[in-house]
Structures are given as structure tokens and as C-alpha cells.
Amino acid sequence: MPQDASNSDSPSTGHGLPGRLVIVSGPSGAGKSTVVQRLLRECDLPLTMSVSATTRDPRPGETDGKDYLFISSDEFNRRREAGEFLECKEVFKLGRWYGTLRDQVASGLKAGQLVILEIDVQGALNVLDNREFNPITLFIHPGSMDELEARLRKRGTETEQAITARLETAAGEMRFMPQYQYEIINGSVDAAVAEICQILRDQKENERCSKN
Ligand code: 5GP
């Protein structure tokens, strides 16, 4: 069951634009990307995805401009200096940077869309600190650390060092779950997609009611 830990009953988006941010966080290997991609295809709401920039290398099957904007460290620093990021973070302490680009977010919000940010916990906290936004926040996890480790190993895309770093980060991230409005246990992708779509529908319905 979705759990709404938020005490706020104000659905105001804050930034005055018709769209709304939806933050999806959770440990790497929790299946967030799969759930989000299916949500974009199957949920009957005006959803869009903010494509983050990263300095990490593409994994097999990932496409530049769709999964991420894969850019060099120099390019990342240049954009950071130019203030192009809403938030950015070195995620696994391995020199890999990730960041949300302001223009990705702005275009969706202006168009009245639900703009999904799939970002880490620190990035989410930075966005929450920015009072301009009142995002819907979801935390996805696979149920246990053992299950998470099994999924990371099954994916087979990471070195042993990267798996260790991701598991350490995951243990730290799980502690931030209570700061999110909704906890989603990704036992089955179908169920997680249906659950999130219903949460977003309900949130939109609440917004409509509060405007009347
Ligand atoms: P991955 O390398 O597995 O694609 O992503 C690693 C982690 O980086 C995930 O937890 C993901 O949510 C996070 N991440 C991806 N894009 C961003 C971003 O733009 N900002 C932040 N703060 N984290 C991000």
C-alpha cells in the first residue's frame, strides 16, 4: 500500500507553472529505471522524464540524450559554472558526476507535465530545500539489502569496486526513506508501475479539487 508520510495538504506547485515535479529515488539496482520507463509508456498521465547529465560512461544499450546526456568532466564543470544545473552531485565517490539541468525541468513544467527526476537522495534533498518546488516524492527499493546485492550482481555491468560503493551508498540512502512521501517496494515491476500511476492520478485529482 502506498504510504503518504507528508503532513502537507497543500498541492501547490510553488513555481507558478502548471506542471509538477515527481522525484523518484532509491538505491541503485532497485529497478528504478525500468519502473520509470514502463510508467512513461503505460501511465495515462502527461508524464515526461528529465534527462540528467552525467560524466559516467554509457552502459551497453544506453543512448545519449535518452538515458542521460553523457558529457565529459570539462563540459560538466563548464555547465555547472554557468549555473545550468538545478542540482548536481558526485554520486558514488568514484569521480562520476550527475546533474539535473534546469532547462529539462522548465520545459516540462511550462507544458503542464509531471516531470520525473530520477535522482539520488542528496539531489532530492537539494530540490526539496528549494522552496520554488513542491515535488511529489517516491522512494523505490527492492525490500532488503540482500535482494539489492543479488540484483546488482545479476545486472553484471559493474566492477566489484563499483558494487561495493553502490551497496555502501544504498545502505546510507535507505535511512532517508522517511523523508519521502511514498515508499514503493519493487517486488514486481507491474505492481510498482500500477501503484505509482495511481498515486500520481490521486495527486492530480487532489490538485484539481483544491482549485475549486
Ligand atoms: P546510474 O549510474 O545507475 O544510472 O545512477 C546512479 C545514481 O545516480 C542513481 O541513484 C540515480 O538516481 C542517480 N542520479 C541520476 N541522475 C541524477 C541527477 O541528475 N542528480 C542526482 N543527484 N542523482 C542522479
Quick synopsis:
The chain is an alpha/beta fold and 212 residues long. It has helices spanning 32-42, 73-81, 102-110, 121-129, 145-155, 160-174, 189-211, and strands at residues 20-25, 47-49, 53-54, 69-70, 85-90, 97-101, 114-118, 136-141, 182-185. The chain has one domain (3-54, 110-207): P-loop containing nucleotide triphosphate hydrolases (Rossmann fold).
What would you say this structure looks like, in words?
The structure is a single chain. By secondary structure, the chain is an alpha/beta fold. It has a single domain, classed as Rossmann fold (3-Layer(aba) Sandwich), CATH 3.40.50.300. It has helices spanning 32-42, 73-81, 102-110, 121-129, 145-155, 160-174, 189-211; strands at residues 20-25, 47-49, 53-54, 69-70, 85-90, 97-101, 114-118, 136-141, 182-185. A five-stranded parallel sheet has the order 2-7-1-8-9, sandwiched between helices. A hairpin with a 6-residue loop joins strand 5 and strand 6 (97-101). Helix 1 (32-42) packs across helix 7 (189-211). The longest helix is centred in the C-terminal third of the chain and has 23 residues, at 189-211. The model is unreliable at 1-12 (pLDDT under 50). It binds guanosine-5'-monophosphate. Guanosine-5'-monophosphate binds at residues 28, 52, 56, 87, 89, 91, 98-100, 118-120, 123.
